[in-house]
Design goal:
By secondary structure, this protein is mainly α. The longest helix is centred in the middle third of the chain and has 7 residues.
């Protein structure tokens, strides 16, 4: 990009999140909440998946730990673009390389 368009006006960061949809544990947006310093350790410390594996154990097995809560929330993010791989076959079937989402499924969890 730099060779073709020159030096960007701002830094570009690429971040990969996991468990945003709560597919394994009953908790959503763990990655984004951490990025914005909104995640609370106590919200996940007692969570387990359907096999009894704790959220904390799975996180640490994957090489992660809780964020340093002494570090202040990011205030330098000007824009956020979330890119997904397609989880269905529509783009492939229609021979398109990119799609723009115009609606999503909302989530609500009642315990």
């Amino acid at each position: 990009m730099k060779e073709k368009y020159g030096t960007p006006l701002r830094n570009i960061e690429i971040v990969s999140f996991t468990e945003e949809e709560g597919s394994r544990f009953p908790y959503v947006f763990w990655g984004v909440k951490n990025l914005l310093s909104l995640a609370k350790r106590e919200d996940v410390e007692k969570l387990t998946d359907s096999n009894g594996v704790s959220f904390v154990e799975a996180m640490r097995t994957a090489g992660f730990d809780f964020r340093d809560e002494a570090v202040p929330a990011r205030r330098d993010i000007k824009a956020f673009l979330e890119v997904h791989i397609e989880q269905g076959g529509v783009l492939e079937a229609e021979k398109k390389s990119v799609g723009v989402v115009i609606g999503i499924v909302g989530q609500r969890r009642l315990l």
